[in-house]
Write the structure tokens for this entry.
Amino acid sequence: MAVKLTPRLAQLAAMVRTPYPHIWDCCCDHGYLGMTLLARPCGGIVHFVDVVPELMQQLECQLQRFFPRSDGGAEGAQWQSHCDDVGQLTLPPTDVPQLLLIAGVGGELTAELVTAVLAANPEQPLEFLLCPVRHQYPLRQQLIQLGLKCLDEQLIEDNRRYYEILHLSTESGMELTPTGNVMWDFGDPMHQRYLQQVIAHYQRLALGHPAQCLPILTAYQSLLSNV
């Protein structure tokens, strides 16, 4: 099945570079990202998870059509669908990391889901590929408190909106920072526009909430010395 992905979803798919025993496409909506990975194949089981029954019924029909279970799907790849709350997932035990994809929801909900998954699956080696639509700074703060490490991070522009993509691990990696580290290319005009947009956003917020927002504003303004 050939799916035309948006630049955001294409970047997410490109960042899945190694096989995983289980990939969880969480809040999967129409399942385009998971189906793209299923068609590669990715080497394990792709799980499609969403809490909306109608979406999951439609998606399962698509999966049965393009990746029928009778022949194992694309070159032996497998899939499962789950009409469930991501925060309630109990993952099968594995010795190597499983990957959870969470994209298209706000930073607050993303933090809640990651926190719940970690609490429900202690001691499990896990990786997360996250692409929140807003509230990146408080999300990063929460992820740091959870002890997650950074494997990679990218900044992408899609339909005039900017997205930070975080690839994180419960095991090893770089230190995660509240304002981002390796994602920045300050010679790229797109990155400069995004930084100016974030600074302008927190300048507005700081007018009404100075105690909360001025430290965040200062942290982003300190990045201007790199431009």
User: Anything to note?
Assistant: The first strand starts at residue 22 and ends at 26. The chain has two domains: 7-183, 185-227. DSSP finds seven helices and seven strands in the chain. Confidence is low (pLDDT under 50) at residues 71-76.
